[in-house]
Write a structure and sequence with these properties.
It is a single chain. The chain has 297 residues and is α/β, with parallel strands linked by helices. It has one domain: Alpha-Beta Barrel (TIM Barrel), CATH 3.20.20. 29% of the residues lie in helices and 13% in strands. It has 7 helices and 12 strands. The strands form 4 sheets. Strands 3, 6, 7, 8, 9 and 12 form a 6-stranded parallel beta sheet that branches. Helix 1 packs parallel to helix 3 and helix 5 packs across helix 6. The radius of gyration is 18 Å and the shape is globular. It binds zinc ion. Zinc ion binds next to strand 7.
Length: 297
């Protein structure tokens, strides 16, 4: 039984998180509201040994210069403090494989968190990765494939990871998983519609072709360039719809990540994985997010 029946999306999922999201409301779209915490009080009664929840966090850019930190851009100092906190409090970081194992077992470690990084900024390699390596923490990166140096499908507003850097991190650490953040669906059109949405005048057939091509190409390129099997996809701005979800699943994407701010529980469908955006600010707000995971520090 899906206790979170409202997860089912009729139109677009709109989740308000600064940085990689939009507050623009599209026709036929609605915002998914978070239920109260009582919704997560042990959907199954036999999970006393472990935890019925885990928390998936999403980061974007990490900066060295404090004057450039705002919204979803954290300073490396803030990020390092958060990782030190997780380490000191015995949090286990989950990669995709661990996530699936615990999810299938319907019980998560007492304290666990999944660290994801959207857009594929090069700051992951230069600033975040050294911190993660120090603690042996796992992370999953979702690059916008068409913004990888050499491809540049869109105007680049920030430095992005090269395939060489991705390969290096995957091979040398064994800590990094990779997923698609689409090839070229990470933008809004001039008419205000997100690229993932069917456009005015676009036939259903053309729409399906466009989305299929993008999701297939981004998966193929990442697999060829990293020698990893790509089964995860993070929707740009957390936006999607039933048709796009169906296409992604048919192409072999098993883990679909949104920006709904909720814990992940055993009843959460893997094609609706919620994530909490981490913003620049005090460690207090970070601890508040972690508290949604049910563990007491
Ligand atoms: Zn993004």
């Amino acid at each position: 039984m899906r206790t979170l029946a409202f997860f089912l999306v009729v139109g677009l999922l709109l989740v308000g998180f600064t940085g990689c999201s939009s507050t623009q409301h599209q026709k036929g779209a609605y915002a998914v509201e978070s239920p109260g915490d009582q919704e997560f009080q042990g959907p199954r009664g036999n999970l006393r040994k472990g935890n019925t929840r885990t928390i998936v966090l999403v980061y974007h850019n990490i900066v060295a210069d404090a004057s450039k930190a705002a919204g979803s851009s954290l300073t490396v100092k803030e990020f390092a403090e958060q990782m030190a906190y997780l380490y000191a409090n015995n949090y286990q970081t989950l990669g995709l494989e661990e996530l699936l194992t615990y999810y299938n077992g319907q019980s998560f470690p007492e304290k666990s968190v999944m660290l994801t990084f959207d857009d594929g900024y090069q700051s992951f390699y230069t600033l975040a990765y050294p911190v993660l390596k120090k603690y042996g923490f796992r992370a999953t990166i979702f690059p916008i494939v068409g913004m990888t140096p050499g491809l540049e499908r869109q105007i680049i507003w920030n430095e992005h990871l090269t395939f060489h850097e991705l390969r290096t991190m995957i091979k040398e650490s064994g800590l990094i998983d990779i997923g698609s953040h689409t090839y070229d669906l990470h933008y809004y059109r001039e008419d205000g519609h997100p690229a993932i949405q069917r456009q005015n005048g676009e036939s259903e057939e053309d729409y399906i072709y466009r989305i299929t091509k993008d999701l297939r190409v981004s998966k193929d390129i990442l697999e060829l360039q990293t020698d990893q099997r790509v089964t995860a996809l993070a929707w740009p701005y957390g936006l999607t719809n039933q048709t796009a979800v169906q296409i992604a699943k048919e192409l072999g994407y098993r883990f679909l990540f949104t920006l709904q701010q909720q814990p992940l529980i055993p009843d959460t469908p893997l094609d609706r994985i919620p994530r909490y955006g981490v913003s620049s600010g005090s460690i207090k707000s970070f601890k508040e997010i972690l508290s949604k995971g049910g563990a007491v520090n």
